[in-house]
Amino acid sequence: MQDKLIIGMPAGSLANPDRGGNLIDLLEDAGFKTSGYENGGPSTFKTIDFLYGWDGRPQEFGSQLSINELDVAIAGDDWIQERILEFELEYGISIAPERIMSLHRGNVRIVGIIDGDNPEETIDDYLIKLCAEKDVLVMVSEMPYLGVGWVREALKRIGKLDEYKEFSVQKYKTPPKIKKGVVIYETWGKTEAKIKNGGADFGIEITQSGSAIRNYGLKIVDTLINSETSIWINPEIKQHPVKKELLQMFLLNLYGCIHAENKVLLVFNVETGKTAGIEQYMESNNLFGNEPTVSSGKSFSEYTIQVECDNRDLPLAKIRFELLKLGATNLDTIPLLSSIPDTGVIGF
Question: Phi/psi class of residue 220: alpha, beta or left (left: φ > 0; alpha: ψ in -120 to 50)?
Fold first, then answer.
């Protein structure tokens, strides 16, 4: 596989064309059409033989990147951080997968939650109360090592880390392995129900709006991280000329599609005598970069500008209307599939 870029393809919602931000469509628009991915694998790239799809779970990709099983992974930032912390806290090993590009999809918050009947509004105040009452603090989380790192920082802030320095990650309701410290029960969802029903003192949860948390009568006392779907790499591939070039190609094409989202091209003609007013309007509204893209003829000039569709301050409909009033004719709106300013956008 020395001449191929091995890409971790996330199973689950990201592979569903109706969920996860249309990752399948994004890959296809970038020039990397997949086959089999939408049906659970095995995933292949239909027209490209230098990309290799490795189907897997985002929860595992951090480990796979660290042992050179994958070159690239498409995964949530939260799951990569979970694996980094697991290696550090359980095995004393430092791993360093590198976040190279956001896909601007799958935005979630990882938050700390407690029962809403508690008067405390912060995790620090809540832990002060718990430490006065209990030797073993019980937490539940789908991401136990993010939980460990978070609660240890909070315990440090309130001066209780030395007293509660031991921790144990376990399956839900197995007997605690420690006599004093923090037991983190690893769950497979419905963390809220376990807290609501007294199965744990507190927990961390993945949320977008927080509505499910509120529906269970719980409240958020802290935000650990904001996470989104990103491209993560094994940094060692930068030292491999073939894989590095394939990575640059992969990233540039993905960037082009992401950068083009919510943008269109306006193409229109202007009589030679009316170009000054058109260009003044475009300049005053920042509708071009260094200079407008124009093809000049004897009687008409053809202009091409890139416009954001969701600009509330200057709506697309208003731009078209103003251009037509100033003399634009044959104004066409063209969907923009990809837009790549230059190779510098990917940072290496």
Answer: beta
Domain of residue 198, CATH code: 3.40.190.10
Which pairs with CB-CB distance under 8 Å and at least 24 residues apart come from 307-316? 307/263, 307/264, 307/265, 307/266, 308/262, 308/263, 309/262, 309/263, 309/264, 310/262, 314/285, 316/264
Cis ω for the linkage preceding 335 (within 30 of 0):
no
Q: What are phi and psi of 305, to 5 degrees?
A: -130, 150
Tokens at 292, concatenated: 């407008």
Residue type, 15: A
- Contact present, 103 and 82 (Cβ < 8 Å): no
For the four alpha carbons of 329, 330, 335 and 339, in that order, the dihedral sign comes to: negative
62 and 93 part of one domain = yes
Asked if residue 87 lies in contact with residue 66, where contact means CB atoms within 8 angstroms, the answer is: yes
d(C-alpha 319, C-alpha 10), whole Å? 40
* Distance between CA atoms of residues 331 and 310, nearest Å: 19
Q: What is the pLDDT of residue 19?
A: 52
pTM above 0.85, yes or no: yes
Count of domains observed in the chain: 3
- Structural domain including 303 reads 263-341
- How far is CA 211 from each of CA 66, 105, 201, 343, rounded to the nearest angstrom? 36, 20, 20, 41
Grouped pLDDT means (10 residues each) for the chain, 348 residues? 90 60 86 89 88 94 96 96 96 95 91 96 97 97 96 97 96 95 93 94 92 93 95 95 96 96 95 93 88 88 94 94 96 95 86
Taking residue 120's Cβ as centre, other Cβ atoms within 10 Å add up to 15
